[in-house]
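Need a sequence for this fold. Nothing fancy.
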């Protein structure tokens, strides 16, 4: 995406910075590990355009979250009976940050508690539509986690959605707020993100594409590992 979203995507606009971000590093590692024999050429687009660009063949590969409908022009890994393979994906949990002064008990079920309340979530988030389908109200006007936490402190949202990719990274982020913000113990949602191919590209390179999905399955903790090098630049 073309927005600064540390540590996953760094910089703004169409220029790719160095370093580019943890998610970019992971995609590069997957492409090399799958045996494509080249390094990727990066194209930066607004988050809302990524799925359309992938379906149109303007780009060959992009991260894609869980959706209720997948265009036929997009190729995802399949299991032996032809269903979308739930294993060959990036698995993660979505957590909620709240104000300490609200004194929510550790037993709070966030999916139940936040119905009828406002949750802050970064713009262009892949699982935002799924949360809305589940009856949650989202404010996705903030570009990143820090802006959403500021909204939380000001009382403009009741909680902030955050992915739990690297626990140490999240702990460091919370430490900056000196106890004003805490994480609810129960996860809001379990999510999956695939690296999806344009269907035409997949059929031109089936062996390497399948190898990339298998590489992701075998390297599930890779994103958390890669993120460590960005802890100082966040």
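Here you go.
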């Amino acid at each position: 995406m073309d927005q600064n979203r540390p540590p996953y995507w760094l910089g703004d606009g169409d220029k790719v910075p160095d370093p580019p971000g943890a998610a970019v590093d992971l995609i590069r590692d997957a492409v090399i590990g799958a045996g494509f024999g080249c390094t990727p050429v990066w194209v930066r687009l607004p988050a809302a355009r990524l799925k359309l660009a992938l379906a149109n063949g303007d780009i060959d590969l992009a991260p894609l979250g869980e959706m209720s409908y997948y265009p036929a022009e997009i190729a995802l890994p399949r299991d032996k009976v032809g269903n979308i393979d739930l294993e060959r994906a990036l698995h993660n949990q979505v957590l909620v940050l709240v104000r300490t002064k609200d004194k929510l008990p550790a037993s709070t079920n966030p999916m139940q508690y936040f119905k009828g309340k406002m949750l802050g979530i970064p713009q262009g988030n892949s699982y935002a539509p799924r949360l809305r389908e589940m009856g949650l109200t989202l404010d996705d006007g903030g570009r990143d986690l820090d802006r959403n936490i500021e909204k939380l402190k000001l009382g403009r949202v009741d909680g902030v959605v955050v992915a739990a990719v690297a626990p140490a990274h999240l702990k460091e982020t919370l430490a900056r707020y000196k106890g004003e913000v805490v994480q609810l113990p129960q996860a809001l949602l379990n999510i999956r993100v695939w690296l999806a191919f344009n269907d035409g590209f997949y059929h031109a390179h089936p062996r390497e594409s399948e190898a990339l999905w298998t590489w992701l399955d075998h390297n599930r903790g890779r994103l958390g590992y890669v993120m460590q090098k960005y802890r100082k630049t966040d």
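For context: Residues 206-218 form the longest helix (13 residues).
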